[in-house]
Structure prediction request, 157 residues.
Amino acid sequence: MIKKRRGGYCYEQNGLFKLILEEMGFGVRTILARIHWMSSPQDNPRGHMALIVDTKDGHYFADVGFGGYLLDAPLELIPNIAQRSPTSNFRFERTGELYILQVELSDTWHNVYQFTTEPAYPIDFEMANWYNSAHPQSRFRTNLMINRLTPTFGCAF
Prediction:
């Protein structure tokens, strides 16, 4: 991604970001999320990698590799409060152990994806990566996705 100046998807982008954060001394957990964005969660496996970063001030949620509505800042992993990023309002709804990341668009909250804080391990991502890269129903096999953060909008296609 760096030497060849190319993009990647969540495993590569968040995987690299995880290594950087760990090198800086942060504790980082990888988690698997189920996408809601522009689809039904029942149609999607838990296949998206995101990060929970442990700091002296608490737990933060980070995701530099989502191909839907991109996060442009870390969020405190606190449910039911709106958090302003440079371009958007986000929040986490929580039911039991299940979190749902939401973004506010036109005064309406939209589900982005759901997850638990259970750590995912490299073998979990190996399985999810196979599905995303090889399964005939994977959105990565049937759609071209390009995202870019801009100063005025969290995601541009």
In short: Residues 10-23 form the longest helix (14 residues). The mean pLDDT is 84. Helices lie at 10-23, 122-134, 139-142.
